[in-house]
Input
Amino acid sequence: MSDDSQSQGEHRARADGVQAGSTADGQAPLLQAEHVQLYFPIKYGVLIDRTVGFVHAVDDVSLSLPEGQTLGIVGESGCGKSTLARCMVRLLEPTDGTLRFRGRDITHLGRGPLQPFRREVQLVFQDPSSSLNPRKRVGQIVGAPLQLQGVGRDAARTRVRELLDRVGLNPEHVNRFPHEFSGGQRQRIGVARALAVNPKLIVLDEPVSALDVSVQAQVINLLDDLQDDLGLSYVFIAHDLSVVRHVSDQIAVMYLGKVMELSPAAELYRKPIHPYTIALLSAIPIPDPKENRTRERQVITGEPPNPINPPSGCRFHTRCSWATKICSEVEPPLAEYPGGHLAACHHPRNVSSAEIAAATRSPLSPLSAGDLLPAGVDEAPGSGTESEVAARTAGNSGGPDDGP
Amino acid sequence: MTEPLLDVQDLQVSFATEDGLVRAVDGVSFTLDRGEVVAIVGESGSGKSVTVMTLMGLTRSPNARFAGSARLRGGDLVTASEEELERVRGQEIAMIFQDPISSLSPVMRIGNQIAEQIRAHEKVSKADALDRAADLMERVGIPRARERLRAYPHEFSGGMRQRVMIAMALSLSPSVLIADEPTTALDVTIQAQILKEISQLSRESNSGVIFVTHDLGVVADVADRVLVMYSGRLVEQGTLDEIFYDPQHPYTWGLMGSVTRVDRDPPRRLPAIPGAPPSLLRAPEGCHFRPRCPHAFDRCREVPPLESRLPDAPDHLDRCWLATEDKRVKREVGGRIGLATGDVIK
Output
C-alpha cells in the first residue's frame, strides 16, 4: 500500500501537464475524465476504524466523450465500470484526477454548485424493477425530476405525457404502478425519467442486461432514435461486447480499474489488439452452430484477481497466455496505433511491425505506466502455456475469497 | 427404436389465481435421450421454467393443476407421490438454478451442503460424504477444493458458486440434469468456462441435459436439439441445425433476427419483435403469437395451429399455419433470417 500513497503525490504533480483528449478544433469534449481514480478504503477496528487497505475500483482512467456521441465501457463484473459511471455523474467523488463537463472542473463540487450539472446529466440503471419505486405511480416517477427542478404542476403533467409517448408507452398509463408493466416497458419508464429534465448526457448502466433478447433490441432502437432526435450523448456500460457494438462510437475495455483498450467501435471488432479484448470476444458464443463449431476460441481460465491487491505490471498478466516476464514488472502505457486505436499491452495482437514501430505513447496512459512501447510482433504465445497460466492464476488471484 | 430416457407427453400446468386460470404450460411434448442436450428457448413468461420445475415436482401447490405425463424410468414425475419424488430428486433428476446465491444456504458450509444431499440418499459416514464432496468440487474446476469445504457461500465468487451448484447436482450421478439459465447471472468469460464444464461432465456421465436459456448463442454452443416455447406452447422443435438454418415459425425468425452477433457488422437497426408476450390469463384466440406476427391471416385467429412436420425432416415440428414454401420466402429479411416488420416500437 505504501507505494500507492507515493504514486498519489506524484500523480498530482504530473496531472497538470496532461490535457487528455482535447479535440483538434479546440472545442472541449462534453465530458472528460483525466486520470480519474477512486479507491474505496477498507476499514477495520472495534472502536476506532483503521484503514487497512484500499479497493482499487477505478485506477487512473482517462476518457473523453465528444458531444452527440456514445462511449461504450465494457468489462467483467468488478472491473470498475459502474464505479466509473457513478463518478461521471458525480454520485461518487473521485479520490484523485479531474472530471470536466464542458471544460469545467466538476470533480469536487458540492451539492449546490452541482445542481445545474445534475440537470444535464442523468443516469439509467440496470434493473428497472428495483430502480423504480413500487409505491409510486408512473406519472409521479417520471415527474419527480421535474418537481425537483421547480417545474409547475400543470406543465409537469403535460411534459410527463409527452415523455411517455416519446419512449413508446401509452400516455394513458400515467396512473399505473411499475408492477403493471413488463421489464422492457419498465426500462422505458427509466429512460423517460432520465429524459424529463432535457439532459445532454445520459449514463446508461447496463440498461438492457436484465431484458429478454427481443426486448433488448426494442430498447436499443429506442435509445438510438432518442440520440438522433434529441442530440444526446451516451455513456453505455455493458458487461460484454455484443450489445455495445450497436450503440457505441468509441469503446473502452476495462479490466481491474484500468483501461486496457480504447478504440473506435467498428475497429475494435475488426482488429482487437489487447489479448483481454480478444478473450472477451471469443467468450461470446455465436448464434450460428456451424461457425461456432469451427471457430477457434480462447477461453481464459480463472477469475479476475482481487482489486484490493491487484497484480503488478500489467493487471491482466495473471490470466494472459501471451504474458512474459516484462508484463509482471512494467505496467504498459496506452500505445496509440493508427486510427486512434489505443491499447495497453507489451505484446499487441493483430498489428504489423510497421504499426508497432509507428506507435506512440498516448497522453491518456496511466501515470504509473512505464514509457516502454511494444518492441515488435511476436509470433507464438510467450512463456504462457495453458498450464503456466493456470498456475499463475491459482497463485496470484486465489479468487475473491482472499479478503483481508 | 429404443425408449427415450425422459418422455414428456402433453404436459399441462395451470394455476388458479384470483384473476382466473393461468395456463403456464399448455400441451408440451418432447423426449430426452441419454447423452443428449436439449435446449428450451423462449422469452420470460413463455413457460420454460415452469415446464422444468414441474419435472422436478417444484410447482406443486394447492392452486396448481396438472395434466399429461412425464415418464422417467418407468415412473411418472407428474403423478409421483412426495415420497417417490424425494427418492427421484437428486438421484434420477437434478437441477441447477439460475441464481446460485439464493439457492445455497448462507449459514452452512459448502462442504456440508454437498454432503447433506449425498447422506440423504445413501448410507455413508459424514467423513466419506465430505470426501466425495471435495472430489466433486475438484471435478467442476474449483481449485484447492479440500480447503474450501469449510468455506461459506459468501466467500465464493458468482462463478464458483455456480460450480458448487453443479457439483451438488452431479453428486448422485443423476440421469437427467436440468440447467435453468445457469449462466445468465455470470460474466461471459465465466459463462464460457461453465458451459464447457456442463457439456463435458454430461458427456462423461452419459446423462441427458435439459438446458433452459433465452440466449441463442448459448444454445448454438451446447445444444443438440432445440425446443422453442412461446406463451406456454411449444411452437417449434428440431435439431440444432434445423432450427438455426431452416426455422419454420415466425417467432423463431424473430428471435434469430433480434440477436446481436459479434462476428458480423451490425445492421443499422436491430430487428425487434414488436409488442410484448400476451398475458397468460387472457391468451389470444387461435395462435398465441398472432397479435405480434406480421404474417398472420384469418385462419390464425380461428384455429390454434396444429403440429406439423416437414416431409424431409420428420423430427422437425412446428405450429404455424403458413405454407412451407411461403415461410422460406417470408423469413428472408435483408439477406438474413428475421421477422419482417415495419420496425414497430409500440
